[in-house]
Amino acid sequence: MRARRLRASLKGWGGVATMAVVCALVAVFALCVPLSGPGIGDGRAVTQASQATVEKAEEDCEAPEKQTLSPSSADGDTIQAIKDREGEKRKLIVGVDQNSYRWGYRNPNSGKTAELEGFDIDLVHRIAEDILGDPDAVQFKAIPTDQRIPAIQDGRVDMVVRTMTINCARIADVAFSAPYFKTGQQVLAPKSSPVKGYDHTLADRRICTAAGSTAYSTLEADQKDGKLPATTDISTTVPNQLDCLVRLQLGEVDAVVTDGALAASQAAQDPTVQLKGDAFTAEYYGVAMKKDADDLVRRVNQILVDYRKDTANGWQASYDKWLSATLGKDAKKSEPPAPQYLRST
């Protein structure tokens, strides 16, 4: 039954949209990492401990997008270890998305290899070129939304460049670069839906978010504070954000909440859905790295400074190529403010 519904929902879709749905479904089964380790048998204890950590981090944190180190082009231990990799292993290992249209996705029309493309992917190539002298010296690893931080902490990747919002809870676990993009949470729903935005029209509606995402933590906090109707069902979470679009198409949820920049790309894939209302938060994407990788953080911040200054092949050119069609030609609303850094000690 579900297979028939899915086939029906895909009728009339273009190649990219079909690819996105297939990738999303594959990602659920192929990329998910099973939970393991101490405390998993006691879900309540883990949840309480995690919530306590989040609350403490948020209490001590102000303006998380400014909690980064000043730029530097110097090589330190982390960068030297990357450069010392031999042969085919001498690559920057980066966690990315492969399902987010125009951000990090495999374009089926780009040839047999269907190489990764998008705004985030352009930035990864720029970082690899600066550190290793070759923009293609990259090993991409597709990382589900809920595995971004574990992948960094476990050393599976050198960094994550995956539409990752800098927030107070996350800076307790990983280090971030200066912001490279500005966005905000927004509601995505069918055009025919009575949902009008992030308001009372979400009462008695089912909302999908990605596990471990800023969207879910925002909904959870707002419902607790009475800013979101108590009858709104926020229990549906998925490993990858694009999986929410599939749930929406199958009629399993009534709306999706995610970054407006991602939602705009999803609306471009599926003409039956649209953004509802304005963004209700202000957030910034950053490159995430290990907490102790100070030299790599500083190097990425220097790269970002140069990237934004490069009018021919930098930030603006990448925006024009990938995002102007979905977010508009005026990039100023998406360009982060001039970065501010922690004082050197």
Q: How would the blueprint of this fold be written?
A:
Layout: H1 2-10, H2 15-30, H3 43-59, H4 77-83, E1 92-96, E2 99-100, E3 104-106, E4 116-117, H5 119-132, E5 138-142, H6 148-153, E6 159-160, E7 175-176, E8 181-183, E9 185-190, E10 206-210, H7 214-225, E11 233-238, H8 242-249, E12 255-259, H9 260-269, E13 273-276, E14 283-285, E15 288-289, H10 294-309, H11 315-322, H12 324-327
Helix pairs in contact: 2-8, 5-10
Question: Can you offer a commentary on this structure?
Answer:
The chain has 345 residues and is of the alpha/beta class. 37% of the residues lie in helices and 16% in strands. The chain is built from twelve helices and 15 strands. The strands form five sheets. Strands 11-10-12-9-13 form a five-stranded mixed β-sheet, sandwiched between helices. A three-stranded parallel β-sheet has the order 5-1-6. A three-stranded antiparallel β-sheet has the order 2-3-4. Helix 2 crosses helix 8 (242-249).
Tags for this model:
345 residues, alpha/beta, 3-stranded parallel β-sheet, 15 strands, globular, disordered N terminus
Which structural class best describes the helix and strand composition?
Answer: alpha/beta
**Inertia-based shape:** globular
Mean pLDDT: 85
Strand order of the largest sheet: 11-10-12-9-13
Uncertain residue ranges:
1-51
- How far is the N terminus from the C terminus? 62 Å
Task: Provide a concise account of the structure shown.
It is built from twelve helices and 15 strands. Strands 11-10-12-9-13 form a five-stranded mixed beta sheet, with helices on both faces. The chain has a three-stranded parallel beta sheet with strand order 5-1-6. Strands 2-3-4 form a three-stranded antiparallel beta sheet. Residues about 1-50 have low confidence and may be disordered.
